[in-house]
Amino acid sequence: MIWRLNYDAHDGFVDPARQSAALWKFVLGFSLAAIGYVALNQMFFQMVYSAIGARSTELYNQLLSGSTPQAMFLLLFSFVFMTVAVGVSVRIVHRRSVLSLLGDLRLGARQFGAVSAMMLGLTFILFVLPPWDMGGEFVPNLDLSRWLMLLPLSLVAVFIQVSAEEVVFRGYVQQQLAARFRSPLVWMILPSVVFAVGHYLPETAGENALIIAAWAGVFGILMADLTARSGSLGPAIAVHFWNNVSAILIVSMPENLSGLALYLAPFSMGDSDAMRAWLPVDFALMFVSWLAARLAIRR
Fold first, then answer.
1. pTM for this model (two decimals)
2. Cβ count within 10 A of residue 47
3. What is the rounded (10 degree) CA torsion for 265, 271, 273, 278?
4. 263 in helix, strand or coil?
């Protein structure tokens, strides 16, 4: 059955972390990675601001909302520093390679392909179902020809962003906690809580900030489950990737990370009534995606 826990593959995924599983090392490693990421990010954007000179204030405002393709590419590609920071931290504190955070690379690549095929199939099924919308007509954003021209680079940028988050939360944090604690209540829930806190955005989501953060937390738990069941980050990266392709490149919220989207949603994140009407559908789609991914990696 696709909903059984069956976490046998998780042992092999966690093995590289067992030689350095002390809790203080995890705290040190996570802190070092966080500080390194912030420092590298700050250096990168300061270089960008210096390079463009007088337009730096305009770019800064664009980056706050991700309202242009240029701003979105800078934001998404900056996630490479998250991967670099955790890679350096793992090497210094735990004496292992960043590749050890991914699990079996060949297995992960096969699982990424299988889950991606399932996600695309699911998208096609949803597309051919009777018409549905988000409570109103989508608002055109980028011209189709420009969107298609940017699409290859946009896909690479989204992949960099989601893989960085998965390497940190379902890779480093989940591995290190699972090496120290056997209970899934620790290694599955704690990283997801941190993941949810990172998605708590009251300044843009208003009254909906808490429920959106809860959505992110549940998503994190489901990705932790996929990782534990599969023994690699491949399935979690695939689901996260196609979810973000939909939310960033296809239909985005008008005031948040909309610079690369083909369409905008007919309401904003701060629209309490519309968001609360839509979120149950979004939760349902998340669970269907998780079940489809589990089916794709079923053994």
1. 0.92
2. 9
3. 30
4. strand
